[in-house]
Design goal:
By secondary structure, this protein is α/β, with parallel strands linked by helices. The chain starts with 5 loop residues before the first strand and ends in a 6-residue tail after the last strand. It has five helices and 15 strands. Strand 8, helix 3 and strand 9 form a beta-alpha-beta unit. The strands form three sheets. It has a seven-stranded mixed beta sheet with strand order 10-9-8-7-11-12-15, with helices on both faces.
Length: 256
């Protein structure tokens, strides 16, 4: 059963600008109440009133508890850049939880998580959930250049993290599919989020060895509710709205 969607006024409890320019935001209920808990892979819609935009903006969930909602945002568009201008104590209107997230796993299963760019955000939350289930996931983080040390430390305190960079400034110099640890056949489950070309390349390799694989699509999502039809994706079940029926899909469902 889908969790009830709520529109909440959340207060910024912490805001950090990482060395990469990404924005880490910790939100709490402005009235001190309990938050609805999102699943790893779900997203939220945020009204960024300080940006010259009409629609809410979707952001992946970096972490979620009854006390806090954490977001990790890359300042790419006008709305995401404007989030960096907010301060602790400011409020944001948030609709949550939205979409369907990643599957969990059972103790003893081997899971590989692959995040490209800010697609690493939902992988942190999924990694925490897998740990709670008794699974020790391996994470590969693909980035254009050396990622923020604080971000890497959070992963490395919980799991094995392998970094690969386009410019060779940290970790392995090359694509995630070229990393020596990218061996989907050694795992029971592969879960991926990042740029579509990266996801397609990873999925093709994982699919070729018959490993169950999920990807989190990043189609443009305006309403987050399946009403505007901006994020339609062709699947084995016909055209579906990524925001409502995803954003996480098994690769066997996609017409890639």
């Amino acid at each position: 059963m889908d969790a009830k969607k709520e529109q909440l006024c959340l207060r910024i409890d912490r805001l950090r600008i990482l060395t990469s320019g990404w924005i880490h935001i910790v939100l709490v209920d402005a009235s001190g109440g309990v938050l609805p808990v999102c699943e790893p892979g779900q997203f939220v819609e945020v009204a960024v009133d300080r940006a010259p935009v009409l629609l809410n903006r979707p952001f992946s969930v970096y972490n979620s508890t009854e006390k806090v909602l954490e977001l990790l945002v890359a300042p790419i568009g006008r709305a995401s850049k404007a989030l960096g201008e907010y301060a602790v104590g400011d409020s944001l209107r948030v609709i949550m939880p939205l979409g369907h997230g990643f599957s969990s796993a059972e103790k003893g299963q081997r899971v590989l998580l692959v995040g490209g760019g800010v697609g690493i955000a939902p992988m942190y939350y999924q990694m925490l959930r897998l740990k709670d289930a008794g699974v020790e996931p391996v994470v590969i983080f693909g980035s254009r250049t050396a990622p923020d040390r604080w971000l890497c430390d959070r992963f490395e305190s919980e799991c094995k993290l392998y970094i690969c960079t386009d410019d060779g400034s940290a970790g392995f110099h090359g694509l995630v599919t070229q990393h020596p640890e990218f061996n989907p056949g050694e795992y029971d489950f592969v879960q991926i989020c990042g740029p579509k070309p990266m996801m397609m390349a990873c999925a093709a390799i994982a699919g070729s060895v018959g490993v169950a694989t999920e990807v989190s699509l990043e189609n443009h999502m305006a309403c987050g509710l399946g009403a505007c039809l901006c994020c339609v994706e062709d699947t084995s079940n016909g055209n579906v709205c990524v925001c409502k029926d995803g954003p996480v899909f098994n690769i066997n469902e996609l017409q890639w």
